[in-house]
Specification:
The chain is mainly α. It has three domains: 95 residues; 129 residues, DNA polymerase, domain 1 (Orthogonal Bundle); 152 residues, no CATH class. Helices cover 59% and strands 3% of the residues. A three-stranded antiparallel β-sheet has the order 1-2-3. A hairpin with a 4-residue loop joins strand 1 and strand 2. The longest helix has 25 residues.
């Protein structure tokens, strides 16, 4: 603790230096008063009110005890009852937020455990060495390595359950995995249909689920140096599943139709942002502002949940550009491989400021937006934090989208591709971080976009002819 005589020599304490009440203050009260006087001097506050005290508490990270000591110091100075009541209100608000127990944390991405898989540490030792080597070499994005590890875990689980060795050359072990995954996919679809009151006589799996698994098994087999005939056998099954997937209507396209259009979602986000101001409880205002931002920003920057958690961070993946008074999202997506990926570099129009500003400010006075923005940038704070200050867990972003759009946040990457014509294709590739013409770019195109692109092409061809010409 700074000695009392040094505190009193500070320039901002000059107006109070000879006040007789200082002798009656405890060391803690004097320190609290020093911090508050320093804040008022720094921000040019001559007649502080509750908004200034709230900003002081956030910008100077004041704990409830420190605010209590500030109230004691100001009581010694004989300040009015109304001002002391305002400090007590801020103290109660800080105490409520710090000790709030109403946020269900849920599993983070790293702690989530599958019930039909084994953890990485239970994989064969030589497999784990290969996975570690791939991680160090950095050839594959973290998302791909995560999925590869998970699929290998599923294979080992199914092989053991069938009494077979965990060997990618073992046909019976692979058949066990195929049967387990097929049954799980069908059961899941039946359960979802029942919840929606739809016909649940599903008898076909989502082939994309199986195809992605054999894609990772084959990828790992090559990386692990397994014999060519083993890799080829996995490749044959992969191609078979890929063909089945192509014949099956893409589930994400059906979900995109249910989710609604981007303008519809943006209108909902605006409505939520306005509604937050009328809610009585601070934690509910905080939650609704976060949800509104997740939907609105998801329409502008349709990121994968993993990128939201890893890169949507102030001062890192999100920067503020004072020259144009706007935000920019700029980062390398995690799931970037070969010639598929492109960096994200998206400057947002000023219309989007209100969503980001709202989750920076929350209940604080807009006069302090600049200082609070500088604080979250300096702290490298995640874009989405809960009311108690903890970062939102991995599943939070998709959960917000599911509440509003009926499906997870990944659907925004499909919705962005429904903009008409070639300009829409270019826009979607930029926002999704896909190189034009890459397999990933083509995969996300919806039926509406495909149809619009064909019609646009026909219009261009028709325009090459005069009205009297026949095509």
């Amino acid at each position: 603790m700074i000695p009392r005589h040094r505190l009193l020599r500070a320039p901002h304490m000059a107006p109070l230096r000879d006040h007789p009440a200082l002798d009656a203050m405890s060391d803690g009260e004097l320190c609290a008063l020093d911090a508050f006087m320093s804040f008022c001097t720094e921000h040019g506050v001559g007649d502080p009110g509750e908004a200034d005290i709230r900003a002081f508490a956030r910008l100077r990270a004041q704990a409830p005890k420190e605010l209590q000591e500030l109230r004691g110091a100001l009581r010694h100075l004989g300040l009015g009852k109304d001002f002391l009541i305002e400090i007590a209100a801020v103290q109660a608000a800080v105490d409520h937020r710090v000790n709030f127990q109403g946020i269900p944390k849920g599993p983070t991405r790293s702690t989530y455990q599958r019930t039909v898989s084994v953890p990485v540490e239970d994989l064969p030792m030589d497999w784990r060495k290969t996975l570690r080597r791939l991680e160090i070499e950095g050839e594959y994005a973290p998302d791909i390595l995560d999925r590869m590890s998970a699929r290998l875990g599923m294979f080992v689980w199914s092989a053991r359950r069938a009494g077979q060795p965990a060997d990618l050359a073992n046909t019976d072990a692979l058949r066990a995995l195929y049967a387990d995954m097929r049954a799980r996919s069908i059961t899941r679809q039946q359960e979802q249909a029942k919840k929606k009151g739809l016909n649940d006589d599903v008898d076909e799996p989502r082939w994309a689920y199986l195809r992605s698994t054999w894609e990772e098994l084959r990828r790992f087999a090559w990386a692990h140096g397994l014999p060519e005939d083993v890799c080829d056998k996995l490749g044959v099954t992969y191609k078979h599943l890929d063909g089945k997937e192509r014949q099956q209507a893409a589930q994400k396209l059906a979900k995109a139709k249910e989710a609604g259009t981007r303008p519809e979602l943006l209108r909902k986000a605006e409505k939520m942002l306005a509604q937050a101001e009328s809610l009585k409880l601070p934690q509910m205002r905080h939650a609704l502002r976060n949800r509104a931002a997740a939907i609105a920003l998801g329409c502008a920057v349709p990121a994968r949940p993993g990128d939201v958690q890893a890169h949507h961070i102030f001062g890192a993946g999100i920067i503020f550009e004072p020259a144009r008074n706007g935000y920019r999202f700029i980062y390398k997506p995690q799931k970037t491989a070969g010639n598929t990926g492109a960096d994200i570099d998206i400057p947002l129009l000023l219309w989007w400021n209100k969503f980001i500003d709202a989750i920076i400010l929350q209940d604080d006075d807009p006069r302090y937006l600049g200082q609070l923005r500088a604080k979250v940038v300096a702290e490298k704070r995640p874009l989405y934090v809960q009311y108690d200050g903890t970062p939102a867990v991995y599943a939070w972003y998709s959960r917000m989208w599911k509440i509003i759009a009926g499906t997870g946040g990944h659907i925004a990457r499909t919705l962005i591709r429904d903009e008409p014509g070639a300009a829409g294709v270019l826009l979607a590739n930029i926002l999704n971080g896909h190189k034009p013409g890459s397999p990933a770019a083509r995969k996300y195109e919806s039926e509406d976009l495909q149809r619009a692109t064909v019609l646009e092409g026909q219009d261009i061809m028709a325009s090459l002819f005069d009205d009297e010409d026949e095509l």
